[in-house]
């Protein structure tokens, strides 16, 4: 720790500048679901890379926001890849924000704004680490490649193609994934994996137009069709009822959960009632299905008496290693058909597998050990987060170990209103990233 | 029929004026669900009554649009009550209308506009009948009372109170209810009753705020709660699963259905699959439950990964004679509680019983016989319509026979986009109403 005093001092002295870097990115409303503001935000990321000392290049994609690639070459025979994304979730319901989502604001030691935790605060922190190392040492003792995409929140549609095309250019020895946070006990959480994702929209089409609801006695109602079909997909205790859904599930890494409890993850209050109650295992290691939205017929004030023209649901399946999203999608279609619901239209909006890195990898050790130094607290290492992301492009396509950590905390309200990070966590996160870069080469060779 | 030549000629010659009366009312966007444009439309109805020769008075109600009452006194010892409403359903989805809903337009022999069939065309037709009788005979040979309310589409919240308060003033020997239509075979349909209504909103509240959907594995999702709860309320074949729901159901009048088929009612294409297949009986005589709308979470384009903050459904129960809406509401709450869903909030938006008049009453005979003369076709008399309305205030509170007929047709798209009536039906409807007024006294005394 003592060896880092100068570096840490430098970071503390420059924290306003680094926070401002985060704010510059947050002020861009880069909502990938609406395909808005992406190009402008990509340019802002490139500018920031340039300010921090990386050489940026912007790569347009056909079906997504551009990818921004930053590189910094050093003398070292070791290369660290950083993965982030500059796109964000929609900010609605906007009326629930205390200050506007795209007007970054610091109050009570917190930086508020859509993307502060997911994921723009992390882009800024990583570039700040580069700036600090250059400021203190005059160099970064590892080759850096920073890949910042613009489609993560909508399933990273162009990422796999880009990584396949640029495989040589992207090669590295290890990767830091986009996010992470400090739990209620103050411990930084280090993730060794993520869940995969199958996001589908189901639509029941009725007669195609609204009909007076007095016909409800004898006419198929698409809202009832949808309700009935959804009810066959999941049991009240959360179990997915699709045949074969759990066949390939891999529970390895469960032993890492022994010293943890669900409370460490600051769960919302209304937990599912399950027999057995292994909720932490369920959260981190089991696949699940969730309704993100329901839409049908009249939703305004008061009453309107109609049979809706159509009814639709948005569902996300969070899948785990060895589950193939295409296979799950096929099983879902088969399930609906077998249960008499093949009139429902199914549209796949996102589809990608899970990813995992071994706790014995040098990346796992490097990130955990440096977290201890940066935060002054023992980190918590978990086999997989509950959330999803296209980490498989790193672990499976590039074939390198990948670990996730970042500047959020348990109260960050990721994807919700008043998303925020704590300034102190942000500063610790900058220190952490600087230590990862500083020690990368040594850990990589320790493991050989 | 010959005796009516002069009267019918008069009506034909004045049809442009009478259509214009309908258009004057349609141009008011009197949407009771939004509580908008009601007072203005009530004034327009009063003006039209005055133009037609009735003495109007406007009665403000606390919880609904004003009631407009029109009277015309004759020498006869017989009084006919006319019930109508000037409020309409919301016009959304507005983008599905060929011409704007509140800009009445005649094209291809049809008058388009929200309220043309339900119920403003009928107000105009009844006043036109008065105008024609005064024009040809110089008098209307029956006392008239015309009650036009402004809250029918939201469950007539003030009507029962008004009728109770004004019981003496409203007393009559028989009543014509608001609506009716010609079926695909051209037969005017005469209704001897309506279903009742229990309209409820069910809401499942989650944690009260959106949560990242990665928590979906272990956190209660209000959308799933709602889907599960709704699924316990109704079987896929339409049967209502609430205990005791069918206890009090009265199937009398079924014999009137013998010569009819569902096709006469121009059903939408996607009928429920039911064993037994007595769909016509189900439509007209059985109670049912319908989903009017579902609302939860993210409904925009693309994907958003959240556990919704809340989920709600709008349901209408169409009930039949002897079913008490308060009792059904109690049974529904009990049902939800018994099935483990007492966390769902239930709000009653409309609640009133069904109504029926005997096929042997003088009103049933009068309306059927005069329909034959006005339309030149045998009418179809049915024990109850599939739709609902507060007819009980006439049959149960005032205690007089009540029959429904009107100027719509099978393609009127009531409550839907491009609502319309055919000009020829409108003219025949005016004739029909004039004949009802002309023959009322005679039929009333025939039945004594």
Automatic annotation (TrEMBL), chains A, B:
Gene Ontology MF: a single term: metal ion binding
Short name of one Pfam family: Peptidase_M20
UniProtKB keywords: Hydrolase, Metal-binding, Protease
Gene Ontology cellular component annotations, sorted alphabetically: cytosol
InterPro entries with a match to the protein in the record: ArgE/DapE_CS, Cyt/Met_Dipeptidase, Peptidase_M20, Peptidase_M20_dimer
Limits of the Peptidase M20 dimerisation domain: 193-340
Signal peptide: none
Alphabetical GO biological process terms: lysine biosynthetic process via diaminopimelate; proteolysis
Gene3D superfamilies: 3.30.70.360, Zn peptidases (3.40.630.10)
PROSITE patterns named in the record: ARGE_DAPE_CPG2_2
Domain of life the protein comes from: Archaea
NCBIfam families, per database record: PRK06446.1
Protein name per Swiss-Prot or TrEMBL: M20/M25/M40 family metallo-hydrolase
Species this chain originates from: Caldiarchaeum subterraneum
Lineage: Archaea, Nitrososphaerota, Candidatus Caldarchaeales, Candidatus Caldarchaeaceae, Candidatus Caldarchaeum
């Amino acid at each position: 720790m003592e060896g880092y005093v100068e570096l840490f001092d430098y970071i503390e002295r420059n924290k306003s500048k680094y926070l401002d870097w985060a704010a510059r990115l947050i002020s861009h409303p880069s909502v990938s679901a609406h395909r808005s503001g992406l190009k402008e935000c990509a340019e802002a990321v490139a500018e920031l890379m340039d300010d921090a000392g990386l050489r940026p290049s912007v790569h347009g994609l056909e079906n997504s926001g551009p990818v921004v690639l930053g590189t910094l070459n050093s003398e070292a025979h070791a290369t660290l890849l950083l993965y982030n994304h500059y796109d964000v979730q929609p900010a609605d319901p906007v009326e629930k924000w205390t200050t506007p989502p795209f007007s970054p604001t610091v109050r009570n030691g917190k930086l508020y704004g859509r993307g502060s935790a997911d994921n723009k605060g992390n882009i800024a922190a990583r570039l700040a680490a580069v700036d600090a190392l250059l400021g203190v040492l005059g160099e970064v003792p590892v080759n850096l490649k920073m890949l910042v995409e613009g489609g993560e929140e909508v399933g990273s549609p162009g990422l796999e193609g880009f990584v396949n095309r640029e495989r040589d250019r992207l090669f590295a020895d290890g990767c830091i994934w986009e996010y992470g946070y400090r739990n209620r006990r103050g411990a930084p959480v280090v993730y060794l994996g993520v869940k995969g994702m199958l996001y589908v929209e189901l639509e029941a089409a009725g007669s195609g137009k609204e009909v007076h609801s007095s016909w409800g006695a004898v006419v198929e109602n698409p809202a009832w069709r949808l309700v009935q079909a959804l009810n066959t997909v999941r049991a009240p205790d959360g179990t997915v009822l699709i045949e074969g859904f759990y066949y390939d599930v891999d529970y390895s890494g469960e032993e890492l959960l022994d010293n943890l409890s669900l409370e460490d993850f600051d769960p919302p209050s209304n937990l599912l009632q399950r027999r057995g109650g292994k909720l932490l295992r369920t959260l981190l290691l089991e696949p699940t299905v969730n309704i993100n939205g329901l839409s049908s017929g009249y939703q305004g004030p008061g009453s309107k008496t109609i049979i809706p023209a159509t009814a639709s649901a948005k569902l996300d399946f969070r899948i785990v290693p060895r589950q193939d999203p295409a296979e799950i999608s096929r099983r879902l279609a088969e399930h609906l058909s077998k249960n008499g619901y093949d009139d429902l239209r199914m549209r796949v909006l996102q589809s990608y597998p899970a990813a995992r890195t071994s706790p014995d990898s040098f990346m796992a050790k490097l990130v955990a050990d440096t977290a201890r130094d940066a935060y002054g607290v023992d980190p918590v290492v978990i086999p997989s987060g509950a959330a999803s992301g296209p980490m498989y492009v790193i672990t499976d396509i590039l074939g390198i170990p990948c670990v996730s950590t970042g500047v959020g905390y348990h109260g960050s309200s990721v994807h919700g209103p008043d998303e925020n990070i704590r300034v102190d966590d942000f500063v610790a996160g900058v220190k952490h990233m600087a230590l990862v870069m500083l020690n990368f080469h040594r850990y990589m060779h320790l493991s050989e």
